[in-house]
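Write out this protein's structure.
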Amino acid sequence: MLGLYIHIPFCVKKCPYCDFSSFDDVMYLADDYIECVLKELKYYKNNFDIEYETLFIGGGTPSILSEKQLDSLFSGVYSLVERKKLKEITLEVNPETITDKKAKILEVNVNRISLGCQSFHDKFLEKLCRIHDADTIYKAYDILRKNNIKNINFDLMYGIEGQSTVDVLHNIDEIVKLKPEHVSFYMLTIYNHTEFGRLALSGEMVLPHDDIIEHMYERGAQALEKAGYRQYEISNFALPDRQCRHNLNYWKPGEYIGIGSSAASYFRQARYSNTEAPSEYIKRIRAGKDPADFTEKIDEEKKKKDYIMMRLRTKDGLDYAEFKAIFKFDFISKYSSIIGKLKTEGLAENEDTVLSLTRKGFLLSNEIIQQFF
């Protein structure tokens, strides 16, 4: 399986917590950018024998594009990619950008939408500096459903300043009423170089204590599972057979091609990522130059680290027999002391065939995974 990711870096307004490559002041580049995205995609078509199984268009805010630009993007992509072989086509959208006209375009071009909700409380949306309110979420969801979008993900955030477990559970109650097929339930992460990072470092922003965040996660996950959403990765829950195929490929880990500024690829034993600035990306593509700023070859050691890191993010965990078949040594024998310690501390469940993290372990996954390196 090979996944295709296309990055659309434009936003109406840059969120102060956002660590993704996105810009709210270069929308005038959109037409040129789409042209260059299609040129880069054509390069792969002309030089490699590739069949994609999933397409994910993320950002930024892809749905900020006009109806004409969306039409141009989709028609261009499908002239270069065999659409009938794509089992999943996802577009990320923000509620305030959804109109009936755009939804009609999405109906005929995608089969999955990821909706950036974050919260159903207006006061927390304001804290996050989102430009939509809760009512806009309901309206956008209704428009998408009326236009025959049958597979929708909600992004939902916890760990916001001033938020309680009761607030989180209210959000999940609202989700259960609407019944999207998928929920990404993730913690607000503070990055030092963002505006929220500056506020946190200066003490102007005080986030919930770790114990409260752990409680939010555990209670929220329990509520989602009680409503029929099975957890299959640290932050992802889905109704039966509605897991995100594109992301499952990342966690396998499988190969993928990233198109656009800052897009990352993992292809033919190499990892590489494109230049971040949209203007520089356009300049390089038009000059026929490689848009990548970073490249590294994946040797056996890096491949092993990727496998451990990605598999321990999933609920199914790391399969010992599969690991041995790939890497030719016994995982349990080499890491027995770490496995025993994690199990004793309630951070992992060690069955005869699989090592998987508990919910408490998921919250500490970065620290746990580092112990194996």
